[in-house]
Every structure is written in C-alpha cells, then in structure tokens.
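Field guide to reading this record: the first block holds the primary sequence, the second block holds the structure written as discrete tokens, and the final block holds curator observations. Each block starts with its own label. This record concerns Molybdopterin-dependent oxidoreductase, catalogued under organism Georgenia thermotolerans.

BLOCK 1 — SEQUENCE
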Amino acid sequence: VDVAAVWGTDGVPAAPGRDLTGILTAARDGALGALVVGGLEPRDLPDPELARAALAAAGFVLQLEVRRSEVSAHADVVLPVAPPVEKAGTFVSWEGRVRPFGQVLVSRALSDRQVLDALAEEMGVALGLRELKATHAELGELAGWEGQRAGSPATAPAPVPAAGPGQAVLATWKPQLDAGRLQDGEPHLAGTAHRPVVRLSAATAAALGVRDGAAVTVAGPRGSITLPLAVTTMPDGVAWLPENSAGSSVRAIGAGAGAVVTLLSEEDR
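BLOCK 2 — STRUCTURE
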C-alpha cells in the first residue's frame, strides 16, 4: 500500500512520531503548546499523574466530549460531539474485525471525525474526512498489505517477575461493569456491578495470615488499594485487582499487570 499516494502527498515522514507518553511528556515540558483531547480519562492512562501534569502545563487544551470530565477542568474550549447513538461509525473488535453501525437518533451534533476535519481545514490541512463514505473508502485503500510479509518476531520473552516475601505479581483487568463513564446517569445498571475485591490463592492468603473477607492492602510505588479478600482458585504469588472500579484505580498506585506489588494485612498497616 502506497500511503503517500492514498493521502495525496509526496511522501510520509521516515522518523517515528511521538507515542502517548512522548506526547504527554512533551506537553508537560513545554515542547508542545497545545493538546486536543477526546474521550479520555486520565485515570485510564498508564501514568495518570503525567497526564494531569501535561494538561495543567499545556498552553491550550481543546476537548471533544459528550459530558463533563476531569479533562474539562483544564480545557480552554470544549466542543460537544455526538455520542454513538447520534452518529454512524465503526467499532473495531479486539480481533481486528470491523463492526459498522448506523445512526439511531436524529441529531445535528457533529461527530468527532467531522470536528477534527473542520479543525484541520482551519489550519490549512485537508483531511478529507467530512463524509463517512469517503472515510471508509480511504480506510479500504489502506487495508491489506501487498508487499512482502515480515518474518516471525525474534524478540525474547520478558523475564518472569519475581515476588519476594510479602509480595505478589499483580494481575488486573476491567470487569464488564466498573467505574466507566458510560454508566453516568444509570445508577441501577451500575449497581449490578460485582463488588470490588482483591483475589489471592488460599496459599498466598495463608502466608499473609488473612482469611476470606478480611481487608487486604495492595501497595504500589505511588499508593495503595485496600479491599476485602476473596480467596480464589488461582496461581500462588499472584494478586488480582479490578483495574478501574470503585475504590480500585490500579493506575493511580503506579502499577499494572505484571508489576510486583506489596501485600499488607490489616495488622501490618
């Protein structure tokens, strides 16, 4: 696929651009003067404190959102965009499967795609994303690879984390219902979420000297989370926490899946 030809340019940059951490670091350090933020909560990012520092330091913050959020406090301008039911678009599953959807409710609200296209036009750049059909057509041209296939990766596996006495390897993911913003205004739905707990195996709980239902603290580099224990059939030396549930924001303690964390009983705290 000739990306430059699809985009109608003479070429594309050879150097890689900034990733998320690079963008936030540059904004925090003054190398970037403005940020465009859409559909983002700092607590969902790998380093929430870096995100908050970047938002506070940026000279100008433009937010695209459907409701007030933590980012709104830093935004110089908030442009309301259409939620999924008021626009047509596409979801891509974790398997890479394209799942298009149509507009359900009649609305004059602009989608985030249309807003970004209009902003680019004001800055002298034609993205060509004003019409959904044109966007899908461009994605279709970019889909598929016609060149030589890359070989199998030869990257060595990451070392297995080693947890010492009073420690565990953290496992975490988001349950179907957690503290996500899409449940705003739906207390009955949110009320059906599983109660947040910390899960340990029977042997790990015994080594810590705690029983089922006791308060257990999981501590990381930046903080700790205390939840009731649910003894679970699982590998020893592993502690599981819900990633973003009430009372359990894993990113806020500076940890993630695979990190080594400290376990504390109520007596140890």
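BLOCK 3 — OBSERVATIONS
The two ends are 58 Å apart (CA to CA).
The mean pLDDT is 91.
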